[in-house]
Amino acid sequence: MIQAACESSVCVNALGISAFVHSVETGSFTAAAARMGVSKSATGKSVARLEERLGVRLLNRTTRSLSLTAEGQVYYPSCLKVLEELNAAESLLASRKRTVSGILRVNLPVSFGRLCAMPVLMAVAERNPDLDLDISFTDRRVDLVEEGIDLVVRLGDPGDQMTLVGRRIGTQHSVICASRAYLERRGRPATGDDLDHHDCLAFARDGRPLPWAVADQNGGSKPFVIRPRHTISHGEALRDAAINGLGLAYLSTWLAADDIRLGRLEVVPILTPPDDVPISAIWPRSRDLSPKVRVVVDALVAAFMPIPPWDQGIIRSGESPAA
């Protein structure tokens, strides 16, 4: 009976410490509960039980936010250390078991994630029956620590190197293209200046059309601000609009390659930058690379490196596809 009571107390304390740390990091019981996968009430009760056991108040609560009390500020660093030691112990056990298991929370870009990353992740899940995937899709830049995400795939700038660790898993290159019907009707632009006389389709992020990148005389890259006829915030919808003759689009080859090969899209002779944009797998620096993260990262690298499958058979830098 005494042993059972002790074990129960340890469990309650561990839950309380975890709920306390997540509440401080996220600023609310609601966000902490979402990260932990429990209810808001359970999170609040766990912190309250911890405070009751310690005999002090750790958090000031208002209807809008949480803040540390003086006692909470003293206690918080120790709780962080406890959780780090627990995570390290779990990672050690997992690597000794040499099994890939548990829940892996992954965030993917919407179109690239569905078209390119998901087939790889599904194959990994099939090979590892003890691995459970929790996958979200968004084109906004997520905060891995605050949102409780283990791994994110990013196109372009990988982000803050102080708090994140990354590995390049592929490259992205873009071309300017349109349907053959559109080009026969409006002509084929040869320079950036020609774009002023065409219907351009812009991709929007956070409500703002993104500029295109055109190669300069030295072979470098310069942003080219277009005057869009249509603005579309979904990559696949943007591609579909180009296929249906609505105008010129600046599309990544991973999105347009199949349609270029099949003749539904034609690359125009405006050179785009030869330097590739990195595609990266990112995880928090504060966490060890657990087996479940490593197996996914390794699978993505194997699938997309050294030459991504979408670029095979496509001559880049704005030229025509290979015969």
Task: Write up what this structure looks like.
With 323 residues, the protein is of the alpha/beta class. The chain folds into 3 domains: 2-95, Orthogonal Bundle (Arc Repressor Mutant, subunit A), CATH 1.10.10.10; 99-170 and 279-309, D-Maltodextrin-Binding Protein, domain 2, CATH 3.40.190; 174-267, D-Maltodextrin-Binding Protein, domain 2 (3-Layer(aba) Sandwich), CATH 3.40.190.10. Helices cover 42% and strands 23% of the residues. The chain contains 10 helices and 15 strands. Strands 7, 8, 9, 12, 13 and 14 form a 6-stranded mixed β-sheet that branches. It has a 5-stranded mixed β-sheet with strand order 4-3-5-15-6, with helices on one face. Strands 1-2 form a two-stranded antiparallel ribbon. The longest helix is centred in the N-terminal third of the chain and has 28 residues, at 70-97. It starts with a helix and ends in a 19-residue tail after the last helix. The model is unreliable at 1-10 and 317-323 (pLDDT under 50).
SSE order and pairing:
Layout: H1 2-26, H2 29-36, H3 40-54, E1 59-61, E2 66-68, H4 70-97, E3 102-108, H5 110-127, E4 131-137, H6 144-147, E5 151-155, E6 164-172, E7 174-178, H7 180-186, E8 200-205, E9 208-209, E10 212-215, E11 221-224, E12 230-232, H8 235-243, E13 248-252, H9 253-261, E14 266-267, E15 277-284, H10 291-304
Parallel strand pairs: 3-4, 3-5, 8-12, 8-13
Antiparallel strand pairs: 1-2, 5-15, 6-15, 7-13, 7-14, 8-9, 10-11
Helix pairs in contact: 1-2, 1-3, 1-4, 2-3, 5-10
